[in-house]
Amino acid sequence: MKVLRRVAQTLASQHGGATRVAVSFSVGVFCGFSPFVGLHAVMGLAAAVLFRLNKVAVLLGVYLNNPWVLIPYYALATWVGVQITGMPGGVELSKYGLPDVLRQDFWLWVFAQWRLLIPAFLGSTLLSILFALVAYPLCVYAVRRFGATPAADS
Questions:
Q1: Cα 28 to Cα 17, 23, 100, 148, distances in angstroms
Q2: CA torsion sign, 80 to 81 to 86 to 91?
Q3: Between the CA of residue 73 and those of 22, 54, 66, what are the distances in Å?
Q4: Domain map of the chain by residue range?
Q5: What pTM did the predictor assign?
Q6: What is the rounded distance in angstroms from the CA atom of residue 10 to the CA atom of residue 7?
Q7: For a 10 Å CB count at each end of the chain, is N or C smaller?
Q8: Is the peptide bond prior to 88 cis by the omega test (within 30 degrees of 0)?
Q9: Tens digit of pLDDT for each residue in 91-130?
């Protein structure tokens, strides 16, 4: 709890208080869960520089999506996209396992699943917006609860 309080105090003391930190964190969450895998940090830092956001808070939001979360999140995002679009037909579940990753027929199967790109992109975009909207009030609460004095919460 002391570490959380210390982080919240540090974030609250930077660039104008809880609301500005929460906006920065939310932008980071949006970038971190966006469909542009591999560009999350670049997008977050570009947004931080462009909109003069708190870079620390943006990067904390970006890195919520980490290797432990990556595969389950994008599987969920793709499922959400499939539910919304009704696409694609003819997608099959993998009959391959981890040892098959080095085999050519595995990669042919992966490339045959290209029809999942649109639902994956749509689902990931919608979930990143939803997560960013949820992150904002949670961050405001955490910074105000564990952070600096209310005078800094402007």
A1: 17, 9, 35, 21
A2: negative
A3: 22, 26, 10
A4: 2-152
A5: 0.78
A6: 5
A7: N
A8: yes
A9: 666 677 778 878 888 888 878 888 888 899 999 999 999 9
